[in-house]
Write a structure and sequence with these properties.
224 residues; 11 strands; DNA-binding; Umud Fragment, subunit A; homodimer; two-stranded antiparallel sheet; Arc Repressor Mutant, subunit A; 9-stranded mixed β-sheet
DNA sequence: CTTGACACAGAACAGGCGTTCGAGTATCAT
DNA sequence: ATGATACTCGAACGCCTGTTCTGTGTCAAG
């Protein structure tokens, strides 16, 4: 049989080990031993696990403290147990904004992008957080959505929404954040600011939904 | 010499061990061994460390996986490495709101309160996060501060502020959130919403500051 | 065909590490 | 005094664990 890959990138076993270490760490709050990795990964020899661990370390995917039991850790802040690193794909103003990220990326990657760390407990428990992305609001164009300059909005990819959810929609060639309501024969896009009037769309002109707003984060301290 | 305490509460060594385990975990991403705890805590015998670990476990402060090396972990979500648990002291509307919490509490406590977990990376790096507390906004009374019903505002105790910081102030027997500016002969309290007019106070009537706003968190998903 | 890099297994070694036990000291209520 | 309780120490036992070494099979290059 063929071993599929030779020397470049992550093989199936690399990935399996990486995944297992992360999962184990999340569940037990301490890293697995070499033997535990082997058992759960279908590797019968500790030396082989060690072999892969060495490679993963050279690739920079993990860090090891030799001689120390369970001295393995996933590199990068993205490896956190109870925090989710959400990439900031770019600024958002009134203009069009960047679309969904490459779904191929996962938390293993350590690319050079800005990101926010969000506690998992702040997200819905069922939310795996896979496709989540964030945008940084520039300018005052979203004040009617109660979103300020500098705010960070966390989005979840979606092309449709249920009533009451806040979505990013395109209306008149502009992107805005509005609460979405589908009513009997119309769509109602309600601003977050209760003093403002909703936008009403006829049934025939269904708005283009670009994502649901999961969360808005405003940091006030940076200026100090 | 006397040993100070007998059987009740946390002794000096309990606390020392707890602190060390937490620090070690934070630095190394894996828990310390019994011997390491002993060395750094000034306990020469592993059995003594084990002795205290047993007690801490009975108290519910830690959890142990016996027989597993480094199988110690601090109990509770508050023990997170990179997340800070901030207690929600109560709702805030237009009325007066609860004041600073008992400064004696620390992250070790597992009291029954609502709380939000905030990634440390979202806070200023120097912020230890000791006195931070959070309030849940009820009602629309703060829309001019760009804060909505249901939002969570994270506060830091303060009785004075620097220019540009957002503070909770009492004006005319009402609490509001405003950007604070001390100008040459007056105080200017600027709403976050740029379309709204500031409140001007004479030099003589310095506003009562109840805390700085560190962060605002809005979750949109719960309704779904 | 030989050679060597690569992927893997298994066994053995040595030190790490949790556990247990025997024993000593100090404080306090009886 | 006396025993009970809390606390401390040191050493030894034995499993846990990382490391290392030998060996096997595959595959591509020379």
């Amino acid at each position: 049989m063929m071993m599929v890959r030779k020397s470049k990138g992550l093989g199936e076993r690399h990935q399996k080990i990486l995944d297992f270490v992360l999962t184990y760490q999340r569940e037990n709050r301490y890293p697995p031993s070499i033997r535990e990795i082997g058992e759960k990964t279908g590797i019968t020899s500790t030396s082989v696990v060690n072999y892969y661990l060495d490679q993963l370390e050279k690739m920079g995917k993990i860090e090891r403290d030799r001689k120390i039991s369970r001295g393995v850790r996933i590199s990068g802040a993205s490896a956190s147990i109870d925090t989710l690193r959400i990439p900031i794909l770019g600024p958002i103003a009134a203009g069009p904004f960047m679309l969904v990220p490459d779904p191929g990326i996962n938390y293993m990657n350590d690319k050079e992008y800005d990101a926010v760390d969000v506690a998992r407990s702040l997200l819905p428990s069922k939310e795996k957080g896979d496709g989540l992305y964030a945008l940084e609001v520039k300018g005052d164009s979203m004040i009617d959505a109660m979103v300020n300059d500098g705010d960070i909005v966390v989005m979840k990819p979606a092309i449709e929404a249920r009533n009451g959810e806040m979505v990013a929609v395109r209306v008149n060639d502009e992107y805005t954040l509005k609460y979405f309501y589908k009513e009997k024969d119309r769509y109602r896009l309600q601003p977050a600011n209760p003093t403002m009037e909703p936008i009403i769309l006829k049934k025939s002109e269904q708005p283009e939904i670009n994502g649901k707003v999961v969360m808005v984060i405003r940091r006030l301290d940076r200026a100090s």
